Amino acid sequence: MVFILERDVTDAQVDVFRKEFERQGFSTIYAPGTEHKAVCLLGNTSVIDMDQVVESHSYVSYGRRVTEQYKAAGRTVHPDDTVITVGSGENAVQIGGGTFTVISGPCSVETEAQICLVAESVKAAGAKILRGGAFKPRTSPYSFQGLGTDGLALLKTAKALTGLPLISEIMNQTQLSLFEDVDIVQIGARNMQNFDLLKAVGRMGKPVLLKRGLCNTLDELLMSAEYVMNSGCGSVILCERGIRTFETATRNTLDLAGVCVLKEKTHLPVLVDPSHAAGIRSLVAPLAKAALAVGADGVMIESHNDPANALCDGAQSLDLLQFSALMDELRVRVPIEGKRLQ
Amino acid sequence: MVFILERDVTDAQVDVFRKEFERQGFSTIYAPGTEHKAVCLLGNTSVIDMDQVVESHSYVSYGRRVTEQYKAAGRTVHPDDTVITVGSGENAVQIGGGTFTVISGPCSVETEAQICLVAESVKAAGAKILRGGAFKPRTSPYSFQGLGTDGLALLKTAKALTGLPLISEIMNQTQLSLFEDVDIVQIGARNMQNFDLLKAVGRMGKPVLLKRGLCNTLDELLMSAEYVMNSGCGSVILCERGIRTFETATRNTLDLAGVCVLKEKTHLPVLVDPSHAAGIRSLVAPLAKAALAVGADGVMIESHNDPANALCDGAQSLDLLQFSALMDELRVRVPIEGKRLQ
Amino acid sequence: MVFILERDVTDAQVDVFRKEFERQGFSTIYAPGTEHKAVCLLGNTSVIDMDQVVESHSYVSYGRRVTEQYKAAGRTVHPDDTVITVGSGENAVQIGGGTFTVISGPCSVETEAQICLVAESVKAAGAKILRGGAFKPRTSPYSFQGLGTDGLALLKTAKALTGLPLISEIMNQTQLSLFEDVDIVQIGARNMQNFDLLKAVGRMGKPVLLKRGLCNTLDELLMSAEYVMNSGCGSVILCERGIRTFETATRNTLDLAGVCVLKEKTHLPVLVDPSHAAGIRSLVAPLAKAALAVGADGVMIESHNDPANALCDGAQSLDLLQFSALMDELRVRVPIEGKRLQ
Amino acid sequence: MVFILERDVTDAQVDVFRKEFERQGFSTIYAPGTEHKAVCLLGNTSVIDMDQVVESHSYVSYGRRVTEQYKAAGRTVHPDDTVITVGSGENAVQIGGGTFTVISGPCSVETEAQICLVAESVKAAGAKILRGGAFKPRTSPYSFQGLGTDGLALLKTAKALTGLPLISEIMNQTQLSLFEDVDIVQIGARNMQNFDLLKAVGRMGKPVLLKRGLCNTLDELLMSAEYVMNSGCGSVILCERGIRTFETATRNTLDLAGVCVLKEKTHLPVLVDPSHAAGIRSLVAPLAKAALAVGADGVMIESHNDPANALCDGAQSLDLLQFSALMDELRVRVPIEGKRLQ
Fold this sequence. Notes:
The structure is a homotetramer.
Chain A: E1 2-5, H1 11-22, E2 27-32, E3 37-42, H2 50-56, E4 60-64, E5 84-86, E6 93-95, E7 99-105, H3 112-125, E8 129-131, H4 149-162, E9 166-170, E10 184-187, H5 195-202, E11 208-211, H6 218-230, E12 236-240, H7 256-265, E13 270-272, H8 274-278, H9 281-293, E14 298-302, H10 320-336, E15 340-341
Parallel strand pairs in A: 7-8, 7-14, 7-15, 8-9, 9-10, 10-11, 11-12, 12-13
Antiparallel strand pairs in A: 1-3, 1-4, 2-3, 5-6
């Protein structure tokens, strides 16, 4: 059962309201959305007289029974899109709510020269957020595992140079403090159901990008978002990056229909990562345009100054000219889809 | 090994050329493409002196060794796109070669009133080919199996009324003669590896639309096209319509990256059927636009005058207003992708 | 709605009974099972007073409402296992009903010497039915397609020599007459949803082995069996042979749990083909033993006198010594599972 | 490149040997197997004169070049099966090396009475290791998450009572110290590629059971085992528990052929968990017998004193009588497969 609160409700009122139900044995989720605020009750809510609750609390607009398993992530609670803002001043960028946001950068941070060159170049081309891996989950223990904390430091150098907000992947909850200066904390596909990590990152109070696991359904993705939101984070960004199927011509099978389904079910922004999905450079631009066409709120694109010599995932990285050409294509198409390019 | 022939080669010369090699024990495939004509040799071609063959035949431009398993369908033999024309006069429509072709109509032909109403309406909205099922492959023997020959007759009535060329699905090779007046013979997903049907339809000498099977790889789709082409048909249209995965939110998972891969590997036109892939009406238009974005040569869209009461697949059919709205969206976007709407 | 008939019901009575309901607009399925005979009504059966029907027909034992989609194949109609007998005299063999039947032979019939040698050898080792492909569905049109009618003739020679009943795969309904002397007609995985073929083979009146398609659910397999049964054939044998998944270490993924599920849902015999599922010789024997352990009614094993030089699927074929060793293993284990080796 | 050492090599010699190569820039893996000890070198080993190394070190038996990606887990390094012993005295149990080990217990520890009752009962029936979940990974944040540290305490109570060694699942590396008294640390399917957890658990120096992820290939499972081994743990047990496919009749699709493949590729013990794979109680016993038939080294079976009221996974849990009946079935069959029941 969810109660939608009046816009001018105060934090103190929300607190009183939640405690009233928690004393009765219900759990509560507070969902402070962009457009309205909601409190969701969990437990045997059949005993509650919903209308009576609305009438007796001046700051409650209305109530609704929720049947989906995802209470906080579903559109029943938040009919309106969640809009997430990262960065500030001239570097502020919106994700969701009619925008199309482009994130770019290398799979892996390699050197200061590399990350700064890529950052300046993708910024000039129109990217608004810089991605770069410092901790890399690799199938083999003998593969390059990322620069670690040194990589995070280099990302901050690139941010100081360009102003671009940062996104990077966290691999476990002992790394929380290292990600204080990262603007969006990414949870990778392999960790989508690492529930303890979801809870810990949810408590950080900063935007989280959650990638769909290779064998996870859309419903499971929403349940994992629910874990993050249930820990206090209202700013979750979902990311479709391909699922594992029998087809081997591409690295994974990008589920663009899934983006449509997610946009219907949830108010959270949904991005698409065509680079990891395809694993093939020539497919990245067409799939990015297709992501726009199906209603995604943005794309995350791997780019590199020298893909042939990248330490990781070079075969799927655009070079800087190719990335710039893709931005030109998006610049023409985004307004046609009724969106603003971020 | 493939030999590309001069444009002005005569049929008689081709015949002589093929017989020369068939006498030596090779099989030959004749691929009379739009841009050039080619003869492909199968067998132990390592014993052939390719340069000597080119020099000694005035009508041979050049030769090339082919390593892909699909000789006739691959771009090695036909670097240029195959363009297929169906219909004639003002109703002629091109598929492939820089066009974007829209096929529409009901899942199943139900009545004369229904098919004529839908045909006139989708024609007015901009569709160029009429689809309609007469023989319906259904999972259950107790489900509606289509009107059969009566359905084909009704389709012809609708063609007489509107001039729209027809496409309809054949289910087995005893039906070949029934499809004489059908402009494009469709082989459904479940029959993609019904090899005897592929051979039989390939001998009909008319365009064939071949749907990808639910569990078939792109390579297998190309090999099935090779069966059709090897029986003498140069006009094969491929159609991506979703594959079966673990995700149940949509009927199947549309593999739009697969369209990009196909366009790189083959010269044959590639269409997309978003209706069957999604199984959900609201996803059809976004996926059709995405199909355009990834480079498909057209879409096949289920439309119905009264989807709520359709005998088959109503949940995924657009009503006539929705189809018209989709055409308006495509009309804006097709030129941006550098194509002509058919 | 299904009516279970008394054991001594005559064909004439069955006929009268069915016509009575067909005149009222219902379709009927007649399921002449081993243990009892049943007539299933299809249509809006809610208007029928079931008890009244039982009371007013002396040859009707009882009635039951059926909720599964598979009426004839489900255990609601036939609680007891169907037992199918092929061959006669000393070569008679039972499939189902507490037996474990071993079918063996080469993927493809190649020469008289080969098929006769294999037939005699597998018979000596304990196989009761000879398999051999005459018409081979192959992914590539350039691969060996089988000996065709010559292959069928060689199979009959091997049968004349050994007495072993035959099973071979039919590929389309124009071949029906060629299979008159084949004891079990096999419908291959790729044709599992070739519904017109299912109907045509169902009308032949001889046992049918139906392989599960690579991407088909167990429910779809049962619905395809329903097509065959609905055409008059009560002797359908199901065969699990692996499904297509993301795993590439084996050719397909053998779904042995699916065998348990089938045995609960249907009264039809269920065999397992470990050869095609695995695609690797060393896995065939362990998987055959596992098939026994999960309750399969038998196995179909590819064997060859010279696997290294087989024209088809040599990598998964047992040589004759290996097959004999497997039979020795089964001979010990079949009684422990409470079955009789056939 | 791997060097197999003489049996009487000392730790000091191993240390000297590894340092010699580490100084030259190679990484080394030390694999102290049951039958022999090996040192594997990683890096550009083409510059090493293998024969010269063998000749110049008295404690080196021979060398071999390794082409698989999994150096420590592969049979190239360890031709013989690894045998892992847990527990001591009369409760000592072997895993691998010709034994068949049965682990049983409830999905989730619920109360002292429950875990003690189940432990005594499964011990009496013949189980040798007690399983019980204290930390439960659940798709929904609103589902029961396990008793946590209290659950671990109750497990220890049950061990004190019965002597059964314990296995329980760890969910993240902050829990390492809690698992000091757990005999086998389980890494769940969802964490199979939580690489930081693999490394941390590998450093604990106790046996690790690693479950295959729902969408992970056998090669990826072996690479994850390699992570654990590369952190110093030689005692890794693999566990097949079903993969995710399109089939929905069972919870997952148990890949028993995969067990055969693993036994060929790796020397590590391979167990099977039929309970989670099937998700249906009636399938557990047949699949356990099938696991034995394909060569698994044991099974992990969920059992519960009152499945209908279990807090977690009741539908797939055997009750105590059913578990006892399964043990009776295994007791007959294990010797036939040439193994000793543990």
